[in-house]
User: Fold this.
Amino acid sequence: MDISLLEVESKSLLLPAFDEVAALRLGDWLVKAALDAQLPVVIDIRTANRTLFHASLPGSSPDNDAWARRKSNVALHFQAASLLVGERMRRSGRTLADQGLAASDYADHGGAVPIHVKGTGMVAVATVSGLPQLEDHRLVVRGLKALLANEA
Assistant:
């Protein structure tokens, strides 16, 4: 994946506002999209200290919950999409362990996308787990674009 494209994508996902109602709208959109496509995923939207939305869809497993938590931790820690963090790490030859981050709590695989609000910065992270990492990432991005377009 091209790092510069991920960086541009991140800048295009700037929301005017985000609160519990927006988290519910985004979560509902992601659930509907996943159910329509019969995707066995976990969907998680959280701040650094609070879960705003969580759903485990048919076919998902407890492992998906653990992956969602670990990917969310990466996005919250680095304030960047977990896919972008992973690409940067691989390109630089570094690992999360080099940063003092345990694999039991952090995973730099795609699927966790920061939620940035204009004039505020990162306020939350939306995460999908259960698909290949690029598909997890793309589903969250589609949801955020729908939220931006007031379609969620």
